Amino acid sequence: MTFTAKILLLGSGELGREFVISAKRLGAYVVACDAYDNAPAMQVADAREVFSMLDGEKLRAAIETHQPDYVVPEVEAIRTEVLAEMEAKGVNIVPSARATQLTMNRDAIRDVAADELGLRTSVYSYAKNLEEVRAGAMKTGFPCIIKPVMSSSGKGQSTVRSDDELEGAWDYAVANMRGDRQRVIVEQFVDFDYEITLLTVRHKAKEGDGVSFCPPIGHRQERGDYQESWQPALMSDDAIAAAQDMARKVVNDLGGYGLFGVEFFVKGDEVIFSELSPRPHDTGMVTSVSQNLSEFDLHARAIMGLSIPEMIRARPSASAVILADQDSEKLTYSGLAAAMAEGADIRIFGKPTSRPYRRMGVALACAGSTDEARRIAKDAAGKVRISYGE
Ligand SMILES: Nc1ncnc2c1ncn2[C@@H]1O[C@H](COP(=O)(O)OP(=O)(O)OP(=O)(O)O)[C@@H](O)[C@H]1O
Ligand SMILES: NCC(=O)N[C@@H]1O[C@H](COP(=O)([O-])[O-])[C@@H](O)[C@H]1O
Ligand SMILES: [Mg+2]
């Protein structure tokens, strides 16, 4: 078989699936890995491996067996020490082992962003027991947000309004955290006007390394998980410049090539750094229709050392998620024709099982304005019906 590059993809969800399609268009051979079989990206990849990304032995074995040109993390929960060890042996970890290690832990990336790079963040502290949670809340005041240092998509996250809710929030965080480090971040609640993801690409340029930006993506979250996103988000030039400046600092510090999803809260002209993913971002699924190079295309190009446009444009577009509301292993979908009648596009991820709030698909729409695109995407998502069989 001939191919341009061999990629080992660690995590095979919906973001990985689109990435595989982009990489395959560039002639890559992709081995998709995840903890369960038939994961979305496996269905479109050349080969698959089923093991937990947190299992160091199996992760090392997969890298040694396949000898990939690039190891591309797709989920946060990965035995990142193994990635560091492999990078030291010359394996190309995307974007860098350091980026995957720091961003997997909220405290690690927050220390770099706030202390080393001096980025503006919310007031915060860390806690490893209830007493420290109480001390943290004294510092932030109420409301505050409590999150496990290791989690994503809002898992274990709660907003606390008074002293007597702290114990419940601590217990909830510990019960829903990933990994074995009982540690949370207590963050001041930012009463933002809106929040954005700034997709930032670090890539090879004519001279040295370049950094390119996509137009900002606005989004709305519930339970700490994204519900809808739109692009371009309306922002003042000063606010965009401030966000770009912070994103450039953080991606240059993390190093390597690839696309990063840098999250910010915006209040007036004040831009507050929240966190980032060293990989395509869920709110960035909208770029599949808004940009001529999607976030997945940009990630694949940057990794493979290919050229990235300096200016990436977006037409007014939106995405809205399609969520399950039950546990099931037998799923059927209907209503696609009605959902698409007003021009929306529907992506069904093909996850083999559902659970309440699991993201199963997304509706995408372009229109004359982002408001109109949001309306079309939301209506379309609401028309897709999931049936749960025996
Ligand atoms: N300090 C805060 N003030 C106000 N809202 C917040 C704060 N922290 C988090 N949120 C809300 O919760 C959402 C999820 O938080 P965050 O991005 O930190 O979690 P996550 O679990 O890493 O999510 P993901 O992995 O999907 O990016 C944010 O997008 C925002 O809407
Ligand atoms: N915010 C991170 C994110 O959106 N990650 C995406 O969700 C998948 C896991 O979904 P699942 O929990 O339904 O298996 C991941 O594999 C990735 O594609
Ligand atoms: Mg986030």
Q: How many distinct helices? A: 12
In CATH terms, the superfamily of the largest domain is ATP-grasp fold, B domain
Level-1 CATH class name of the largest domain:
Alpha Beta
> How many domains?
4
Bound molecules: adenosine-5'-triphosphate, glycinamide ribonucleotide, magnesium ion
**CATH fold label of the largest domain:** D-amino Acid Aminotransferase, Chain A, domain 1
Total DSSP E strands: 19
Q: pLDDT below 50 for ≥5 consecutive residues: which ranges?
A: none
Rounded Rg: 20 Å
- End-to-end gap: 41 Å
The shape is globular
CATH architecture of the largest domain: 2-Layer Sandwich
**Percent strand:** 25-35%
Protein name: Formate-dependent phosphoribosylglycinamide formyltransferase
Keywords: ATP-binding, Ligase, Magnesium, Metal-binding, Nucleotide-binding, Purine biosynthesis, Transferase
Function: Involved in the de novo purine biosynthesis. Catalyzes the transfer of formate to 5-phospho-ribosyl-glycinamide (GAR), producing 5-phospho-ribosyl-N-formylglycinamide (FGAR). Formate is provided by PurU via hydrolysis of 10-formyl-tetrahydrofolate.
Pfam families: ATP-grasp (PF02222), PurT_C (PF21244), RS_preATP-grasp-like (PF22660)
Would you mind describing this structure in some detail?
With 390 residues, the protein is an alpha+beta fold. It has four domains: 5-93, Rossmann fold, CATH 3.40.50.20; 123-188, Dna Ligase, domain 1, CATH 3.30.1490; 190-315, D-amino Acid Aminotransferase, Chain A, domain 1; 316-390, 2-Layer Sandwich (D-amino Acid Aminotransferase, Chain A, domain 1), CATH 3.30.470. The chain is built from twelve helices and 19 strands. The N and C termini lie far apart (41 Å). Bound molecules: adenosine-5'-triphosphate (ATP), glycinamide ribonucleotide and magnesium ion.
